[in-house]
Every structure is written in C-alpha cells, then in structure tokens.
Prior knowledge:
This protein is 51% helix and 7% strand. It is mostly helical. It folds into two domains: 13-126, CATH 3.90.1030.10; 143-219, Serum Albumin, Chain A, Domain 1. The protein has a three-stranded antiparallel beta sheet, with helices on one face. The radius of gyration is 23 Å and the shape is globular. Keywords: Ribonucleoprotein, Ribosomal protein.
Amino acid sequence: xxxxxxxxxxxxxxxxxALLKNLVTQLLQHGTISSTHEKCxxxxxxxxxxxxxxxKVNQMEDGRARDKYLSEIQSRLFLxxxxxxxxxxxxxxxxxxxxxxxxxxxxxxxxEPRLTDKACESILELVDTxxxxxxxxxxxxxxKFWLLIKNVINDESQSKxxxxxxxxxxQKMAKFKDRKQFETEILTVKRLLxxxxxxxxxxxxxxxxxxxLVNQVYHTVLSSKGHSGYKFINERxxxxxxx
Length: 243
C-alpha cells in the first residue's frame, strides 16, 4: 500500500526503518540483493540518499560539516560485525564512482513471482559496478549487463543485426564508463558465457566483433518512435452524415 510517496510495506514505522536500513546495508556490502519489488523500490530511494551524502562528504573540507554528514550516514545503516568497514568503503570506494552522476545509482530488475505466495520479486543492484575486482574475481551484480551480452551472442549466432533495444540499453550502460574498460568487460562476459555453453572461442575474431559492437553503441543514433504530443485544433471536426 502506498500513502503519499513512501510505501508502508505493511509494517510500523520503526520496523519499516529497520528493514530498509538492513536492505541498504546489505546492498552496499554485496552490490546486489533480492527481495520483493516494493521493498527494492523503497530501498533504492534510501540508497540513493546515502550515496548522495557520501559524495558530499568527499567534497567537504570543514571537519564539523563532514562529521555531521558521517553521523547522518551512520544513522541510516547497520554498522556492526562484518559491516564495521562499510562506511569507509562507502566514502572512499563506492561514492567516487558516481561523481559524474547526479542520481540513479541503483537499478531495480523485475523477476518472476515467487512460487509460494506469488509475490513480485526484484533484484536491486548498484549500477556501474566493474565486472572484475582488483584481484580478477567476478563481482556480484551486473545482471542486466549479462543479459544484454547474452542477447548479443544470440544475435551473432543467428547472423542477425543487433536489436535496437539491446543497443539502446548498452548505450545507457556505457555512458559513464571508459571505452576501453567497456570493451574489456564485454569480452570478459562473452568469454565466460560461451565457455559455460561449450561454444567455440577465438580471441581475435571475438575481439573484432566486440570492437564493431562498441563502435555501433557509441555512434548509433536511434530514432525515437514515441508519442509525438498532442495536436490542438481550432474547430471541432464535423461528424459524417449518416445515410
């Protein structure tokens, strides 16, 4: 149920705040979480606020103002046990990734309803998460990116041109990424997906296909086929006479 802007989630205010704090803490710790769609939407709003405050902390030189924002962030997260270093990671690692973004730091992806109670489930993940970490291990998240590359592989296997929707979504994901990094991530995901499917892999030919794909992503201007707007007329048209 929605009252005003925020959802009550069938809980009292203290219970709801504790639930959202826990969801956002797990999101910042692991990069992705799964829950019901309504919980993911509300947690997404709170996560955007927390990341915005962390970005402001990095831009502050006044110690008092910085401490004030840090205490505000601490009040919105559970920082105990395994999460002791989460605040440092948020300010020093997560927030700097979104300096060029004005908002939209999270993504909600709908899943199929649960088999038990048919509740609408979704995945909430941080955007612009690198595919590999510093040690070369796979990061959690990036579900949408993996699905897009899977569509790319299917189009290439059928010798079809890339779907416009796939190109459009890749354009949105490449907007805040370095081109070289974007090419490397596409090649990495394609290699893993083809390896799981036991498909033939040739590094040179695949690198050429990735270069062509990235060129199309960066240079294609897709035509919008949306609603062109209302048209105002001065006179009401006459109805045709019945015969």
